[in-house]
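Propose amino acids for all 937 sites.
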């Protein structure tokens, strides 16, 4: 069935082998590759998710990566789920009913200068159920764009409850017993009149609405009603402030108009560069003829609300103040401010700066992807790196570098987009049970937990968009365009008619941003760390849609991009300083949780990474990071404050971010530290190009928009520069909202200055010429033989701030084999071998631990082609049980070695340090302590 649907979608005849289904020239595996993992539910058992839904649930793929996913995924147990943070209410499920929490006081931990978190944690106020209900599990009876209907059955009783984002109501249908509300403490009843009862628990006001003719009885902590035998009711939490009895009456007008469906619709108007989004509710009147409902809007919604007037009262939430509107729908209107394939070369197109960027680009000829791993994420990072190089090289007419980068992209994508019998790596598998396309090797739970598909696949789609501009034939559905479209549909299916994948899997329509975890099974709800990698996916859709003429994909990208940019400003950056609790003390978070936020990451406590993870990758789709230049300074100043000084790792990412607020300062930083170690998805060529040109252009100007999706305006000292990119085969005129026009030839990017650059052969043709034999030019600047391991994995040629990293206890014998190693890497190295040998002086301290042994391995990839030409493993060094630094040097001697040394030509060096033996941790000095001396230069 899946193959037939693909055939219909792409208008292609598809062939099937024993293990592959073709899509144009590409293919995916239709049986699980040997040794690979499927999504796993409770107890790490691969499950069919439809065992947790009822016969009423919609057909097709089940949603994942949602605020309510834990009750469907059942990651932690086979019965219920974790708290569901819908806002303003949080919920929890158990065998006896649905529990409500309305937490208005944040719990804050950590410090204002270190790792810290704020949460509005689940604290039960009431539980709603049926007298005698004892359900062995909770199933899902249905869902819509931002609601879910859990279902209970047990003890001869049943219950359905519809809950959702923004809904202060929970709607219930029951059989077999009386409605029962159990309070966490004795409720304070402030109104009990017939079918309506108002009461307070934990300082929060609730109202329960039964059908006409019913009454509510109170006994201790229990409130119950026979519902006059009609089997439906609703419960709402009221906002604080004002006349609660009057508010209860207002809510009562909608109490029996149960929400039975929600649906978003959006429209991008290029002429006005406006995104209009309508959030609509379907209601079913259980009693009376009321339509519409009460809903609470997040800040990113009410800040752009049109045509509705909120009530005076507001709710408290983990996202800040929620404003209340009533009706059958509400609409927001946002300005789309444009993206570009890349920042234009207005500053590095001539003179010494051209020589600098040319040298840096030529150094990438041999390995533009800078391969660091073969899984979906690290392959994606490499593809993104190569795409940036191709875009810049094309601007500067370095066609050999451009074609090398495009060739690397094409070769790698073609490999991943081709399945064959027995192939287990660089292959995608379509799993019909979960409705997902999984790439193998998977990483970071992208297989078993369905995590991060938008993060990983966004890099693939973005690189494909770059390739499509120069090789439009490759992007046709009859070639590899169909495989790109499958990746898009998996991560965020834009086509409601395609039920193989859930609609907008990773994008939370009401919350306005992505969720990373497929199962969401955490007490704090679902989470997302790298909002900027989510935006990389959205930008990729805009670029791919524009390059291939697919306006449905382009407009989906504009919708996700524009909505999420607004959400990021509110919930990751809090640019208005209104949403984070005052005592939190940070101006940004590294992670957003369902019930709060954290100045933290999953992988590092370094401020550079906590803040930088919401900046990378830096592309022409990330100018939204500079929409508020003053906030750029605020964010960067927090980094230097928390770090105790300027950044020492990920300096390229952080300076590129700084350039969006102060290009001159960022450029000065780069020129003074051009020997920096690049972040894994970056290149020095791109870092210099980005910073140098923003120093010339100034900051983004969001007050002027264009009638074309690939356009941007910059302003410096009151002077504007207008930029537009045309990746079609015919000339266009781009008109900006202030009346300025740019005539843009086919396949070109132009600015309002005197510069015009190529944008690829978008007019057709067969693509770039074959890749030339690389000619590598040494990287600009002297080679540094002495390298300094840095916390975060860098191995730069300059000392950093003194610090430490921890080597995990061996708890076994790992002599000669790195296990839980700290890894330090330097890339892009060009220098002659001087005939010497590796030397190092590592500062190590095992404290008072007895019988620890630390070991090192140094590996050389001389040409940066991804293979290690020389590997040296040194004998482990037995540390003493006395606190204080010891020196582990090459004098310990080689345990083993392979290969031979030669000249470095765009090469890389990796240093791994780990505990080979012992039951305790060891501290390794970094920054300006430990050194590694390379035998080059």
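Proposal:
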């Amino acid at each position: 069935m899946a193959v037939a649907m693909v055939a219909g979608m792409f208008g292609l005849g598809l062939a099937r082998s024993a293990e592959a289904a073709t899509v144009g020239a590409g293919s995916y595996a239709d049986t699980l590759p040997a040794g690979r993992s499927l999504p796993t539910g409770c107890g790490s058992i691969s499950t069919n998710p439809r065992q947790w839904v009822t016969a009423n649930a919609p057909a097709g793929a089940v949603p994942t990566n949602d605020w309510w996913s834990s009750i469907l995924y059942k990651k932690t147990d086979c019965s219920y789920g974790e708290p569901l943070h819908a806002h303003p209410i949080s919920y929890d499920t158990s065998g006896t009913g649905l529990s409500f929490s309305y937490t208005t006081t944040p719990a804050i931990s950590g410090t204002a200068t270190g790792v810290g978190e704020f949460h509005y944690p689940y604290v039960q106020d009431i539980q709603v159920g049926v007298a005698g209900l004892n359900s062995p599990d909770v199933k899902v009876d249905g869902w819509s764009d931002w609601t879910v209907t859990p279902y209970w059955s047990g003890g001869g009783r049943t219950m359905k409850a519809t809950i959702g984002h923004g809904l202060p109501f929970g709607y219930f249908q029951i059989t077999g017993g009386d409605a029962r509300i159990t309070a966490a403490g004795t409720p304070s009843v402030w109104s009990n009149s017939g079918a309506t009862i108002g009461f307070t628990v934990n300082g929060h006001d609730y109202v329960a609405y039964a059908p006409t003719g019913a009454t509510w009885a109170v006994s201790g902590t229990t409130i119950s009603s026979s519902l006059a035998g009609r089997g439906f009711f609703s419960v709402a939490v009221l906002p604080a402030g004002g006349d609660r009895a009057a508010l209860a009456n207002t809510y009562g007008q909608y109490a029996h108009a149960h929400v039975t469906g929600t649906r978003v619709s959006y429209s991008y108007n290029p002429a006005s560069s406006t995104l209009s989004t309508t959030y609509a509710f379907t209601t079913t009147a259980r009693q009376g003829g009321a339509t519409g409902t009460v809903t609470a809007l997040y800040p990113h919604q009410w800040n752009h609300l049109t045509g509705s007037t909120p009530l005076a009262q507001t709710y408290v939430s983990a996202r800040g103040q929620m404003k209340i509107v009533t009706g059958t729908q509400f609409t927001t209107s946002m300005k789309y401010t444009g993206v570009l394939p890349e920042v234009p070369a207005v500053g590095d197109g001539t003179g010494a700066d051209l020589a600098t960027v040319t040298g840096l680009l030529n150094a990438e000829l041999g390995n533009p992807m800078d391969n660091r791993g073969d899984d979906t994420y690290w392959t994606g990072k490499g593809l993104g790196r190569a795409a940036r190089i191709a875009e810049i090289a094309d601007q500067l007419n370095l066609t050999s570098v451009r074609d090398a980068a495009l060739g690397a992209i094409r070769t790698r994508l073609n490999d991943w987009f081709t399945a064959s019998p027995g192939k287990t790596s660089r292959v995608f598998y379509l799993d019909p049970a979960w409705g997902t396309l999984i790439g193998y090797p998977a990483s970071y739970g992208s297989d078993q937990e369905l995590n991060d598909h938008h993060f990983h696949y966004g890099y693939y789609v973005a690189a494909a968009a770059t390739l499509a501009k120069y090789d439009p034939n490759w992007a046709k559905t009859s070639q590899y365009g169909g495989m790109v479209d499958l990746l898009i549909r998996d991560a965020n299916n834009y086509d409601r008619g395609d039920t193989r994948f859930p609609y907008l899997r990773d994008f939370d329509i009401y919350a306005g941003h992505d969720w990373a975890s497929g199962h969401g099974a955490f007490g704090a709800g679902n989470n997302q760390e790298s909002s900027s990698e989510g935006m990389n996916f959205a930008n990729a859709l805009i670029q791919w849609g524009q390059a291939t003429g697919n306006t449905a994909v382009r407009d989906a990208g504009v919708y996700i991009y524009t909505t999420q940019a607004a959400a990021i400003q509110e919930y990751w950056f809090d640019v208005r300083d209104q949403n984070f609790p005052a005592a939190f003390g940070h101006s940004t978070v590294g992670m957003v949780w369902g019930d709060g936020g954290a100045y933290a990451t999953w992988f590092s406590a370094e401020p550079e990474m906590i803040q930088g993870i919401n900046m990378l990758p830096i592309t022409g789709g990330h100018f939204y990071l500079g929409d508020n230049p003053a906030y750029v300074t605020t964010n960067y100043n927090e980094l230097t404050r928390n770090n105790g000084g300027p950044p020492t790792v990920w300096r390229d990412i952080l300076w590129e971010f700084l350039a969006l607020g102060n290009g001159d300062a960022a450029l000065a930083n780069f020129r003074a530290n051009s020997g920096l170690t690049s972040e894994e998805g970056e290149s020095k060529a791109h870092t210099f190009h980005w910073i140098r040109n923003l120093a010339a252009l100034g900051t983004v100007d969001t007050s002027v928009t264009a009638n074309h999706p690939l356009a941007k305006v910059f302003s410096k000292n009151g002077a504007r520069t207008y930029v537009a990119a045309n990746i079609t085969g015919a000339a266009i005129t781009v008109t900006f909202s202030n009346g300025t026009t740019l005539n843009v030839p086919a396949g070109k990017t132009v600015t309002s200055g005197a510069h015009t650059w190529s944008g690829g052969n978008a007019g057709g043709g067969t693509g770039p010429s074959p890749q030339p034999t690389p000619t590598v030019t040494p990287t600009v600047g002297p080679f540094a033989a002495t390298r300094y391991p840095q916390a975060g994995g860098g191995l730069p040629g300059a000392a950093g701030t003194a610090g430490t990293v921890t080597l995990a206890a061996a708890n076994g014998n790992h002599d000669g084999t790195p296990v839980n190693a700290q890894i330090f890497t330097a890339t892009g190295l060009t220098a002659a071998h001087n005939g010497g040998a590796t030397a190092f002086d590592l500062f190590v301290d095992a404290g008072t631990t007895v019988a620890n042994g630390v070991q090192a391995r140094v590996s050389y990839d001389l040409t940066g082609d991804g293979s290690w030409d020389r590997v040296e493993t040194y004998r482990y060094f037995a540390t003493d049980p006395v606190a204080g630094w010891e020196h582990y040097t090459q004098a310990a001697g080689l345990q083993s070695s392979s290969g031979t040394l030669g000249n470095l030509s765009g090469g890389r060096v990796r240093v791994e340090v780990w505990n080979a033996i012992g039951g305790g941790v060891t501290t390794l000095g970094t920054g300006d302590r430990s050194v590694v001396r390379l035998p080059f230069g």
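Confidence is low (pLDDT under 50) at residues 1-18, 754-781. The two ends are 61 Å apart (CA to CA).
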